[in-house]
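haha ok so turns out i had the wrong file open the whole time. this is the CORRECT one, sorry everyone. sequence first:
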Amino acid sequence: MTAGSEPSLRAPRVAGPGDDAALAARLAARDPAALRDIISRHAGALHRTAFRMTGDAHEAEDIVQEACLRLWDQAPAIAARHPSGSQAAGTLRLGGWLQRVVTNLAIDRLRRSRRLSDGEVPDREDEAPLADALIEADERDGLARRLVLALPERQRAAIVLTYYEELSNAEAAEAMEMNIKAFESLLHRARAALRQAFAAQGGTR
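then structure:
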């Protein structure tokens, strides 16, 4: 994988009910094979999110590694809350847990490095959904990627999780540790800012 390029990734294996709880128990028992299993399932999607957020492949790798280390460190507590065979075991989604950590780590790094403006774009009427043309433009010439990278970090996260990772609003809100109404308001502002930036580049809706 070359720096600055987005990796080509395989889709992770779909886990069954309680499967993540069993993995968490193995992690808590300090089974390194369990960590390798987690990485093989989720590292691709996590790296994609981190790369979209930071625009830097090496930094994205660092973020994913840090998230996996945090999972390793917190596995005993996670396993205790979701013991295998219990009703709680079926609710554990390690992919979602890792996605939340990666999103927060990326936002923290962006803020520390002062790469983005702290200004918030005011609410405006959401006249149309985010143009699919923006995503298509990303494939053509990288325009959408540049515009997304220019958004404030939380707006960027909302766009990346919703449009690139194709999470539902509820899933994206959970990843950002927000309630659904607050997330939808954030996504509204992000879409408006992205359309405004696209228009400033001479694009059309």
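Confidence is low (pLDDT under 50) at residues 1-17, 115-133.
again sry for the mixup
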